[in-house]
Description:
Blueprint lengths: L14 H10 L4 H8 L1 H8 L4 H7 L5 H10 L4 E2 H7 L4 H7 L3 E4 L2 E4 L2 E6 L4 E6 L3 H4 L13 H9 L5 E7 L5 H6 L3 E8 L2 H13 L5 E4 L11 E6 L26 H9 L4 E16 L4 H9 L5 E10 L1 H10 L8 H16 L2 E12 L9 E5 L9 H24 L1 E4 L3 E6 L9 E6 L6 E4 L1 H8 L2 E5 H12 L3 H17 L3 E3 L1
Parallel strand pairs: 6-7, 6-9, 7-8, 9-10, 11-13
Antiparallel strand pairs: 1-3, 2-3, 4-5, 10-12, 11-12, 14-18, 14-19, 15-16, 16-17
Amino acid sequence: MTPSPAPPVPLPDLVPSLRADLAAAGFTVDGIAAALGPVANDALGREQLLPADLATRDAGTPLATLVRLFTLGRPVPAEAVSAALPTLGLEGLERLGLVTVGEGRVRATCDLHPHADESHSWWVASDLSEMATGAALAPDHVLGIGGASTTLAAWTPRPQVDRALDMGTGCGVQALHLSGHAGSTVATDLSRRALDFAAFNAAVNGLELDLRCGSLFEPVAGQRFQLIVSNPPFVITPRVSDVPLFEYRDGGLAGDALVEAVVRTIGEHLEPGGIGQFLGNWEVAEGADWRDRVRGWLEGTGLDAWVIQRDVQDPAQYAELWARDGGNVPGTPEYEAMYAAWLADFATRGVGSVGFGVVTVQRPATARDTWVELVEESGPVSSPMGPAILAGVRARTWLAEHGDAGVLAAAWRCAEDVTEERHSRPGAEDPSVIVIRQGSGLRRAVRVDTVMAAFVSVCDGDLTAGQALEAIAALLEQDPAEVRAAALPVVRELVADGFLLPV
């Protein structure tokens, strides 16, 4: 196999010029979207390059040149590159290790992509994809901005913290996001090539990262953080010669043992009140419940946990997904051998399905019982989800610290995004179904009875929950104690999920 190209080098005398030229060319998420148009831009997001190729082939602008060079991996005339990067120049681009030049044509040695969130914009370098190179990935391939990394970035809560950890940083995407709300960030990875890319990406974006090489939490032994974020190599991969191992996805452990290891050990590295956020796969035996497996990992950790399963696949679906990953083509002998190896591996452990989800854990800041919530939410959610995750962690923590008495003593207000639906049979005086629905966060819908519908309707902060339930019981001529007992679990659920907010 051809050796992977050397990662780019963050030369301090040249990086500012690169940054200035990229900005001047409009090489940003919005700039590329406007230049390509919605069809080509959406296709590019699906790793279909042809529409973007056609859209930039004759454009002749600096932005089109950069897209062709770094995004599409196309050879570009040297004079066009020089014109697109007038401050850095072609020689500077070569010295940074971003391109090679031959016979008047320039070829990128890596992918360079703009990336952004609601308030920041960055550039991210990584290895060229198999779509750009036309070849299968190398084992030490450094992945760029993929679906998992964008999912984690969107779901990560973002409190202001003094110190954060990005474990398994890859090319450094999560560390870039952390830079916006962490005083300092440690980023670790087992791959030295990945750390070299992360160092370049930190430099080109004018940031400083504490980069450390090692597996899982080894590089930060004995240290604690207020926030830990991780997109670990969670893919369940057979340990056989027929299946190639990629550093970006394979953690070196059988089954879902790597995710289990993260769950069991992350609490040792969290400050009291600290939050951990990561993605994972978990195996579920035939006829078993995924909650039992994940709950078993959490036992004895002393952590609060909110685990949201977003997807589930049977063994064949999982094998098809990851056998294709890396540039392997269905129908080839190599693909068929990998497919069979995955199915055989799952069969040895009696796996009936594989779950994928987002794991949020918290080390309690006070002496109390921990809370654990394991739920399935496969539908559309808000983006970003991070604010809802942070609010949900804080609400569940408040409930654990204050109990039912605190809920009854507090005044609550209905969140602005909550609506009510009533359904009834034609001609009926009263509704047969009442549903309250939230428009943001997990976008949950909760079916409620008449008492709870009345309770939510009066949650404007004037009355405590206890006073409101007392008044509703009197109005309906029901026993106040029975009304409180029936309503409290639902009130707690509504508080936890953000339907009801503290005054």
